[in-house]
């Protein structure tokens, strides 16, 4: 074989392997859609489960996941933004900065079940919030912090240094500079990060296991201190804990969960592309 | 720095009936960490005149300029020694409010760098953060600043358009207007024309000339003709030192130092 032939062969082989990576994604999605699409109906989406969950719909779990997603956003947002601003705009080479960075790296590495246990200890028991939407949201929020902080920091650092320099040279304070000439440009990137984080949080089971998720609770929560059902945990329950469960309901539930998570990711991706295209510097 | 660099007679100081100094730099040294960028600078900057700073790349012109409004403060490890008196007050004194200083000593940068906002918002930004005006006053400040920067006629019908729709020459005049809007006393310009074509360059030089009736201007330039054309005083920097500082026509016609002569003839020839 000549060098040129080897060259061409290498390219083909590598492209093929890369294409293989697409397969599992497509396969998983198609498989879930194929098996689950049949049960999707108005009734399935918007009514509560009946007959020990073997009939009826997933409304309380779907709504619970929506509540938890919002709760997570509210819990994570302020802390994440403040930390990212600190790291990107104020952090000097000091001990606080090193500790914050170390903490974030470690937060990112903690298994989600450990978050669940921490949430149980800290929020449910110690803060006495009970098994509740607040406790679950806080736990999920904590879990999404690392992703949100690092994307937010990246978005802040991507704002040209020049904007800060000019703003300061006009007599603006550091905070005015951040508030008016940095944050507005970084905001789309920050929001993208948050949505990505939420996409992950919405699909997690372990962190909500002990902090909020109800096994079977057809009534909707009346306050943020109530328990609620949630899609991932509901899926786990009907797949493992309920004998005689029709398979189609499991796949239908999986399909809805997949759609929730994928649509969040999609929104984040679209936002990011649009922002890149509109960026003017 | 040797005293013969500052020949009082030639500089036309107040004692000889010349202009009064707006800024007095005394024994000023500047360091980036352990690297010394400026050595023993002592010089006056004259009120309502244009002072040009020339010298080879890396000799410390920008560092000196940024020392005058303490923009170097943002560089980690940077350190200043000596005095810089603005209206007789040391700007490096501990009680100085740097935001107040920077409002009084404005800056125009090398690359036209308007914010990616409307023309109006660019000019209004400074007055807004300084917490001054009500809407009507603000509109007046924007108009007068744009007019003083010789840009009003070109943009008055599209103040809401993005500043990035302007051509580079207009953008640079917008940046000047943005600086004027906070009513500074001194304007520092770091190679403000190096990104502009010759016509836009002359436009900015004209503008500087007119502004010098009201403002004290310090300009860094690599363009000898520009320094010769547009300034009243010229300082020649070399490796962080001020080699020669005199009235512009004299510095260019009869440089006293061999270094100055070599530099300006090298650049002109
Ligand atoms: N932020 C910084 N940190 C460390 N050293 C710096 C920094 N800025 C400038 N210097 C150094 O200080 C010296 C003077 O730099 P300065 O930018 O003031 O020169 P200049 O005369 O403006 O050059 P130019 O004509 O290329 O703009 C140079 O040796 C440069 O490498
Ligand atoms: Mg420079």
What features would you describe in this structure?
The complex is a heterodimer of chains A (281) and B (269). Chain A is 75% helix and 1% strand. By secondary structure, chain A is mainly α. Chain A has one domain: MetI-like fold (Orthogonal Bundle), CATH 1.10.3720. Chain A has a two-stranded antiparallel ribbon with strand order 1-2. The model of chain A has no long low-confidence stretch (mean pLDDT 91). In chain B, the strands form 2 sheets. Chain B has a 6-stranded mixed β-sheet, with helices on both faces. In chain B, strand 4 and strand 5 form a beta hairpin. With 269 residues, chain B is of the alpha/beta class. Chain B starts with 7 loop residues before the first helix and ends with a helix. Chain B contains 11 helices and 10 strands. In chain B, helix 4 packs across helix 5 (135-148) and helix 7 (168-180) runs parallel beside helix 8. Chain B is globular and about 55 Å long. The mean pLDDT of chain B is 90. Chain A binds chain B through residues 92-93, 162-163, 165-173, 176, 180-181, 185, 280-281, and chain B through 69, 71, 74, 76, 99-100, 102-103, 106-107, 109, 111, 113, 115-116, 125-126, 129-130, 162, 164, 175, 178-179, 182. Magnesium ion binds at residues 61-62, 190, 220 of chain B. Adenosine-5'-triphosphate binds at residues 32, 35, 37, 55, 57-63, 75 of chain B.
Main β-sheet, spatial strand arrangement of chain A: 1-2
Principal-axis shape of chain B equals globular
| Oligomer state of the chains in this structure | heterodimer
Q: Give the name of the CATH superfamily of chain A.
A: MetI-like
Number of helices of chain B: 11
Structural class of chain A: mainly alpha
Topology pattern of chain A, helix = H, strand = E: HHEEHHHHHHHHH
Number of domains of chain A: 1
Name of the CATH architecture of one domain in chain B? 3-Layer(aba) Sandwich
- For this structure, what is the CATH class of one domain in chain B? Alpha Beta
- The CATH homologous superfamily of one domain in chain B: P-loop containing nucleotide triphosphate hydrolases
C-alpha termini separation of chain A: 48 Å
Which residues of chain B form runs of ≥5 with pLDDT under 50?
Answer: none
- Would you tell me which CATH topology of chain A applies? MetI-like fold
Q: What average pLDDT do the residues of chain B reach?
A: 90
CATH C-level name of chain A = Mainly Alpha
Kindly estimate the percentage of residues of chain B that lie in beta strands according to DSSP.
15-25%
Helix count from the secondary structure assignment of chain A: 11
């Amino acid at each position: 074989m000549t060098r040129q032939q080897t060259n061409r062969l290498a390219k083909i082989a590598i492209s093929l392997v890369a294409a293989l990576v697409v397969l599992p994604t497509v396969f998983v999605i198609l498989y879930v859609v194929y098996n689950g699409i049949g049960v999707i109906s108005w009734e399935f989406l918007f009514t509560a489960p009946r007959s020990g969950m073997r009939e009826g719909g997933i409304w309380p779990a779907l709504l619970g996941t929506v509540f938890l997603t919002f709760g997570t956003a509210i819990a994570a947002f302020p802390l994440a933004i403040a930390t990212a601003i600190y790291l990107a705009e104020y952090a000097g080479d000091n001990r606080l900065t090193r500790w914050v960075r170390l903490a974030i790296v470690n937060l990112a590495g903690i298994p989600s079940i450990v978050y669940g246990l921490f949430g149980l200890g800290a929020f449910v028991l110690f803060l006495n919030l009970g098994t509740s939407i607040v406790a679950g949201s806080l736990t999920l929020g904590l879990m999404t912090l690392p992703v949100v902080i690092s994307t937010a920091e990246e978005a802040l650092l991507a704002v040209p240094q020049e904007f800060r320099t000019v703003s300061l040279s006009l007599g603006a304070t550091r905070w005015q500079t951040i508030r008016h000439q940095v944050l507005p440009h970084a905001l789309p990137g920050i929001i993208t990060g948050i949505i990505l984080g939420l996409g992950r949080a919405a699909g997690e089971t372990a962190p909500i296991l002990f902090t909020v998720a109800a096994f079977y609770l057809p009534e909707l929560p009346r306050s943020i201190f109530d328990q609620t059902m949630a899609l991932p945990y509901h899926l786990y329950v009907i797949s493992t804990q309920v004998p005689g469960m029709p398979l189609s309901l499991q796949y239908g539930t999986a399909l809805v969960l997949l759609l929730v998570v994928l649509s969040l990711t999609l929104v984040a991706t679209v936002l990011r592309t649009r922002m890149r295209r509109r960026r003017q510097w | 720095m040797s005293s013969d660099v500052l020949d009082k007679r030639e500089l036309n100081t107040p004692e000889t009936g010349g202009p009064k100094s707006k800024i007095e730099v005394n024994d000023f040294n500047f360091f980036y960490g352990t690297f010394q960028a400026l050595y023993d600078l002592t010089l006056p900057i004259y009120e309502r005149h244009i002072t040009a700073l020339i010298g080879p790349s890396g000799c410390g012109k920008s560092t000196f300029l940024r020392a005058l409004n303490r923009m170097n403060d943002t560089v980690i490890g940077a350190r200043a020694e000596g005095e810089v008196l603005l209206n007789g007050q040391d700007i490096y004194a501990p009680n100085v409010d740097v935001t107040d200083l920077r409002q009084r000593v404005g800056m125009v940068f090398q690359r036209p760098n308007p914010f990616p906002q409307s023309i109006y918002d660019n000019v209004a930004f400074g007055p807004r953060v300084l917490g001054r005006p009500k809407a009507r006053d603000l509109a007046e400040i924007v108009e007068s600043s744009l007019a003083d920067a010789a840009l009003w006629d070109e943009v008055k019908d599209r103040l809401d358009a993005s500043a990035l729709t302007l051509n580079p020459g207009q953008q640079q005049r917008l940046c000047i207007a943005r600086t004027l809007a906070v009513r500074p006393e001194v304007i520092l310009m770091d190679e403000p024309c190096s990104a502009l074509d010759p016509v836009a360059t002359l436009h900015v030089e004209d503008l500087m000339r007119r502004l010098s009736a009201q403002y004290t201007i310090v300009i860094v330039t690599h363009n000898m003709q520009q320094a010769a054309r547009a300034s009243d005083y010229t300082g020649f920097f070399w490796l962080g030192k001020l080699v020669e500082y005199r009235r512009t026509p004299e510095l260019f016609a009869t440089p006293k130092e061999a270094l100055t002569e070599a530099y300006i003839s090298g650049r002109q020839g």
